[in-house]
Amino acid sequence: MAHPYMPNSTDDAKARMLAAVGVADVDELFEQIPDDHVSRTPNGLAPGVRSEATLRRHVRRLIDRNDDCVANASFLGGGLWQHHVPAVVDEIVTRSEFLTSEWGTPSSDLGRNQAWFEFASLLGDLLEMDFVGLPVYSWGSAAGYAIRMAARMTGRGEVVVASSLSPERLKVIRTYCGTEGGNDLITVRVVDVDPATGTLDPAALALGPDTAAVYLETPNYLGVVETAAAEIAAAARANGTETVLGVDPSSLGLLATPAQLGADIVVGSTQPLGIHLHAGGGVGGFIATRDEERYARQYPTLQVSLGSTTEDEHSFGMVLFGQSSYGAREDGNDWTGNSVYLWTVANAVYMSLLGPDGFAELGRTILANAQYAARRVAEIDGVEVRWDGFFKEFVVDFSATGRTVAEINAGLREHGVFGGKDLSADFPGLGQSALYCVTEVHTADDIELLTDSLRKVLA
Amino acid sequence: MSGLRRYHAPVWDEPLIMEMSAPGRRGNVPPEPIEELDPASVLPAGLLRATRAALPEVAEPDVLRHYLHLSQETMGMIGISLFGTCTMKYNPRAGEQLAQRDGLAELHPDQDDSTLQGLLEVVHRFDLMLRGLSGMDRFVFQAGGGAAAAFTHATVTRAYFAERGELAQRRDVITTQQAHPCNPATAAAAGFNVITLPLESDGYPSLDALKAVVSDRTAALMMNNPDDMGIYNPHVKEWVRTVKDAGGLAFYDHANFNGVMGRLRAAELGFDACMFMLHKTFGVSKGGGGPAVGAYGCTEELAPYLPGPLVEKTDDGYVRRENPSGVGRVREYSGNLNQVVKAYSWLTAMGGDGIKEAADLSVLANNYMETRLLALPGVTKAIPTMTKHRLEMTRFSLEEWSAETGLKATDVQNRMADFGIDAMWLSHEPWIVPEPFTPEAGESWSLEDIDYWIDVLAHVLEEGRTDPEKVRTAPHEQVVAQFDGAGLDRPDGWATTWRAHRRKTGRA
To answer: Domain named Aminotransferase class V: which ranges (chain B) (predicted)?
Structure first.
């Protein structure tokens, strides 16, 4: 029986191709492979399921065993956040023309290239930055690449990061910065944040002659908006150090832009711009700078530029391709490959739909909802919200309740609530604390469910 | 032109979305806050945005129509794409639909394992399937693409030798001229020195060349086999043995697995680790360049160095656990697990019989193409001394035709698009074959589509002799004319954003 995915799996097609090639048996075509290379062990795979109905039922039953963030009220964030994804985004991003496309040429894939350019342009408007590369795998990857850019530009070998950094992203950054004994090692120096405010004090930076970059995020992983970001960027500049700033684009209709703060290289996640969580598969990272040659020549990404055709039409092409690993192999700026380019189409659609007022309103709603939720949670006996000045995430300290976050979260699950991310292992100084995330998708009923459930669990 | 289809791309003269702005229009309205709050009451003025974002203002139906127009101006699945080295194949809609369900799309990776049992079971099942195909002992899916899997190997190698106290000594990673650029590039990014072996007349570097560079400084060998020209190194077992005898690790970049799947097992050839690209070989959508998955597998000996978390089956269900001596993370979370579910769905549909048949059909179709293409005057193949049937794909050359007509492979690429053919792949760097092109039929394109592709090429080659100007100025039936990239690599020429373009062109 022919397989539905393989048009040539009919006897007729095979016979025609064999006859044209002039072999009697397809095995003859594998003559390059020495006999003792061919595996004799069964591969353990079951026979194929040719019926889509049967296949769908099987996979669907597996997926539907999961408990998701729609059926439950989820307060999980920490670098991957539940936001509303407009229906138009899903409609466009599942189009086969975008899904099943590869490299193309400027004319054969004009539409996709235009969407890529629009992604970079719209993000540039949000960040107030003029040079934006095509995205990389994730925010952590973007931070790692940006730090390596800064090290190449300055010829220095140290990056300073805040102790409030996401443990997950810090691990990625460390992987990108290398290991003692290798070439081009970048030392990661962690500076403690002020326990009273959760923010980084510029006086604590201790910038030295070998400091290539300060890597700072605002809002930081613990939710707090960094109050001294501009001062830190100024101090870094005075020291010949690059400021790499990580930002959450969902905050930028409301919060100061990276340009306003004086950042040099800006990175962040594209996930808040119209991408579902996908169990951690919804991530993407961007890199942006001022449009200066010294930055452009260090980009490790692919970049698409507006240009024109021989007939003076708008078209789009890759620029500075020769400095990528595709162009220069080991002599390129780091390495590139498949990334998350499909998501840039989602991002472009999302940013177009929201526009300037949508982003401003989104920011105000998130801030107000998060502050409301924190106030309501703090009303519960023994529960403390650590710091104010946060945007959409905040640290809830349960230490005084005598219960662990793990116990509390297990109890909350019984009520259809996914409690905040447990911080107790990664941030022991915070005791039994959890990072709670509240966005525009949360309603007053969700907060009511959370506080009622917390009271029951803590009773 | 008889026998060829009439084709003309949909042309919309579509403006940029930034040019579609009309003050006051809206495409989406966020919810009202639960209770009103003045931002200035909780954040200092200096931390608030000073100016309104310069984003366009567009209504929902206009945004939808704009991006539908752009989708129509993207050949992708609409055309015929025999794009070699990337193995274009059909992306089953069932997998795409399943991945849209809340039970996958709306999962947070920090959820408790007890709420992710279906997903973790899929990951574990798929890990077992890949172990069966490779002979490796453990897979992780964290890498966001094939190059990221190569980087994973470079970092695993680094951790392995660091723990042995040999990292300062083991500085060299050996690749070949025909290894994908990501292999030397990731080795360099991970802090190694790269040694690249040149090809001999039979299409692969000699064993002697390898032996000449292997030493107690060797950290790893990173190679493809077959390579991007469809040439299989028959001495690969000796290669792996040579490197391992010297204390190095051997990594098999399985970018070209499609033609040999079900026939070869990396572990049986002696490799310590390998990588599969789920976004090509296993039917997952490419998306124009991701989200992708580079599934990285290794032996028990290297498993302690894998990035975490690892998924395991226990008596209490499926769990994720950290890997204490591992490299930490090459990327956040467990990877693009939505794509892993699609690959699991595809491989379940194909089964052990299906992948063997897909490999057979793929190799058969590529040889069918070679037979027909070499019958075209002006077409030759790379490494003509390698006369055995090629695997996966063949790299051809238009050098003779180019000398005759003064035209280039890129001209052919542009002109073929006028007939509904998506751009053919030319070659990775370095171009060791003049005027190269590398078509790959795979198992997803019908014989009729393959014949059409060849008929179009035959037509264009002949047209190059009779009307070279038509080919040189192509495309003519595409969305827009040929791109003029001259000057774009200069600071005053490039504009990666509309802001930069407007500034450079003096438009406010």
So the answer is: 156-400
